[in-house]
Design a protein that fits this description.
Number of domains: 1
Shape: globular
Structural class: mainly alpha
Oligomer: single chain
Strand content: under 5%
Number of helices: 5
């Protein structure tokens, strides 16, 4: 495994804990009819998600210039914020509403922070493929997260 593989692993780490400790309370029932647009967005989200989780494994983390150093710093801040949002979720009873609640003014931080992290990784690696995958994932993931937050 190249060192770039640590980036998706660090993003996925709290999600593994979430799988073991899912939201408390009653799950939100999904409506039977899902729009065609929603199905397209779901598909785009999954395509982008898989690409953003796989592509970093083909790169090594190397910092040779200021641009790459800034990218690493942005990733560290995004991951710290992401972990803070997950810590809030786990420490406050795993209410599903906490998955979508703003944190310090950032709407849906559990959706925004991984996107920022992967965009910064694309700068670090100089990867247009990862940047494109992140934009696809980001647009779909944010749209779905905001829609899910609104439906609660």
């Amino acid at each position: 495994m190249r060192s770039g593989g640590w980036i998706p692993l660090l993003v996925l780490l709290p999600n593994l804990l979430w799988m073991l400790l899912p939201p408390g309370g009653q799950p939100q029932a999904r409506t039977a009819s899902i729009s065609r647009f929603r199905r397209v967005m779901d598909a785009l989200e999954w395509v982008g998600r898989i690409a953003t989780l796989v592509l970093p494994f083909f790169y090594s983390v190397q910092v040779h210039n200021t641009r790459q150093a800034v990218a690493v710093a942005v990733m560290a801040v995004a991951l710290s914020f992401y972990y803070a949002a997950w810590a809030r979720y786990f420490s406050r009873g795993r209410s599903s509403g906490l998955l979508f609640e703003s944190l310090l003014g950032v709407p849906v931080p559990l959706a925004v922070c991984p996107i920022v992290c992967f965009l910064a990784a694309s700068v670090l690696f100089g990867s247009w493929c990862l940047a494109l995958a992140t934009v696809i994932f980001g647009v779909a993931h944010l749209w779905i997260s905001l829609l899910d937050r609104k439906s609660r």
